[in-house]
Design a protein that fits this description.
By secondary structure, the chain is α/β, with parallel strands linked by helices. The protein has one domain: Alpha/Beta hydrolase fold, catalytic domain (Rossmann fold). It has eleven helices and twelve strands. Strands 1, 4, 5, 6, 7, 8, 9, 10, 11 and 12 form a ten-stranded mixed sheet that branches. The protein has a two-stranded antiparallel sheet with strand order 2-3. The longest helix has 14 residues.
């Protein structure tokens, strides 16, 4: 069942991304049991340009979505990063032009998408991809273009690999093209938890104060907002990350046939995968934005939006 509603007037006045991120509450929540460290209080996503929103109930939970553009436009599905939310795409979405119906999802356990019961040990990429495709079936969307960052790009890659007949074009913005590992390796890695990223009971730690390590952004306001979106996803962040670790993104990408655009910055964790992408899909277009980091679509939305629009509107 789909419930669609017009979004209410924003509670906060319209402001820049910096001001919106700075306004997010980050009061620490008291630990509820022994061994649980303090974490930021969950915050609502900043107001975006969306004109519609809704939820799709699926077995196991509910997926939330936000949209803009004509309802008869060519659909473009936007998927956010690990520990992100649909608001990650609010700077790019309105730039995709009047031809497109732009729909941004909150992935399972993230943003306003709620799941029944506690998270599993690993939320696998194929599980998430299947849940999204079932939601699109309910929404009457048989074919679309897909764009994703980080986790969202990996899920979009799996969708393009499994359902090529349903994917018009694919955009991967700063995505880890990692070959994956098995559960034995995952169990080994679990013993080396980074206390700057996760608490002892695998809850996300704020990154803006301790630093984001390899996943650096060149924009402090993006870092601050990421703390809010990770706090909202809370115990779903690590299970989703485990699912990424268990997934062979390179093998999935090699099976895709949809026209493909890579968008990367030239700084941060994901730069090393630019050549991997070229090797796996030599026919792909590559746009690399100077001075951008790991979350290029949030740091440089105007340039990413322009690149995506040109790609989406060029006949295949």
């Amino acid at each position: 069942m789909i419930r669609t509603r017009a979004l209410p007037h924003p509670i906060l006045p319209r402001r820049s991304l910096l001001a919106a991120a700075a306004a997010l509450p980050f009061a620490a929540a008291a630990a509820t049991r022994a061994g649980a460290a303090a974490s930021p209080a969950p915050a609502a996503a900043p107001k975006g340009p969306w004109t519609d929103s809704g939820h799709v109930a699926r077995a196991g939970g509910v997926l939330a979505w936000r949209a803009l553009g004509p309802k008869d436009g060519d659909p473009v599905i936007l998927l956010h990063k690990l520990g992100g939310w649909s608001a990650d795409w609010r700077g790019v979405a309105p730039l995709l032009g009047p031809r497109h119906r732009v729909i941004a999802f909150d992935l399972p356990g993230h943003g306003d998408s709620t799941m029944n019961g506690p998270p599993p040990y690993a939320q696998t990429v194929p599980e998430t991809a299947t849940m999204l495709m079932a939601a699109l079936d309910e929404m009457g969307i048989a074919r679309a273009s897909f764009a994703g960052n980080s986790l969202g790009g990996i899920v979009a890659t799996e969708i393009a690999a499994l359902w090529p007949q349903r994917v018009d074009k694919l955009v991967l913005a700063s995505v880890s093209l990692f070959p994956g590992y098995d559960r034995a390796k995952l169990a080994q890695l679990e013993t080396a938890r980074d206390p700057k990223v996760y608490t002892a009971d695998w809850r996300p730690v704020p990154r803006s104060a301790a630093g984001a390590g390899d996943f650096a952004t060149q924009s402090p306001e993006v870092e601050t907002e990421q703390d809010a979106s990770r706090a909202r996803a809370d115990r779903w962040v690590r299970p989703s990350e485990r699912g990424v670790g268990l997934f062979n993104t390179q093998a999935a990408l090699a099976r895709t046939i949809a026209p493909l655009l890579f968008v990367y910055g030239d700084k941060g964790h994901y730069v090393k995968y630019v050549q991997t992408g070229k090797d796996l899909r030599g026919d792909a277009q590559v746009v690399q934005i100077a001075g951008a980091g790991s979350f290029v679509h949030q740091e440089r939305p105007a340039e990413v939006g322009a690149a995506m629009r040109a790609f989406l509107e060029t006949p295949a």
